[in-house]
Amino acid sequence: MKDVITSLIATYDVTGKYFDVDAIDKLNGYFATASARIESVKVINANVSAIIKTAASTLFDEQPELIAPGGNANTTRRYAACLRDIDYYLRYATYSIIAADVDVLDERVLDGLKETYNSLGVSIAPTVRAIELLRDASKELVKAAGINTVDFIDEPFDYMGKTLADSSL
């Protein structure tokens, strides 16, 4: 897993260059948002159950066919697997928020996910929607906790959603 710092060092080391203005700006941005990222993750971690419950209920209200007979979340086992996956996306999003880098999402979540879901007959679209709902619920709680700088919360969720949506074309 990389963060902004290790990514920058790796990039500049390969080219044998010293940090330039762009690298310094990225580092400044990383450190300027560090407290807000940490506090945001604390809020998310303290509300994991509520975030997952909100995302799942909204998803199943919007797409009742998922829990209807024949749906991908119909049986208790499949429903539990769906909730487990939603939890998984949220947990790795928090890692990405702390790192200010999406590398962990590629390594631990996205690589092979489309193939796995396709082999199981699981549609990607509800997964993308669940990730959007996780983002929205997380941002709402973080804002309610008085953390005003929350744009960085979008990055991991949007990255997962876009990558999955693009890979399903």
TrEMBL record:
Gene3D superfamilies: Phycocyanins (1.10.490.20). It holds the Pfam family Phycobilisome. GO terms for cellular component: cyanelle thylakoid membrane; phycobilisome. SUPFAM superfamilies: Globin-like. The modification N4-methylasparagine is found at N72. It is found in: Plastid, Cyanelle thylakoid membrane. It is a peripheral membrane protein. InterPro entries: Allophycocyanin_b (IPR006245), Globin-like_sf (IPR009050), Phycobilisome_asu/bsu (IPR012128), Phycobilisome_asu/bsu_sf (IPR038719). (2R,3E)-phycocyanobilin binds at N72, R77, C82. Keywords: Antenna complex, Bile pigment, Chromophore, Cyanelle, Electron transport, Membrane, Methylation, Photosynthesis, Phycobilisome, Plastid, Thylakoid, Transport. GO terms for biological process: photosynthesis. The keyword 4Fe-4S does not apply. Belongs to the phycobiliprotein family. This is Allophycocyanin beta 18 subunit. It comes from Cyanophora sudae.
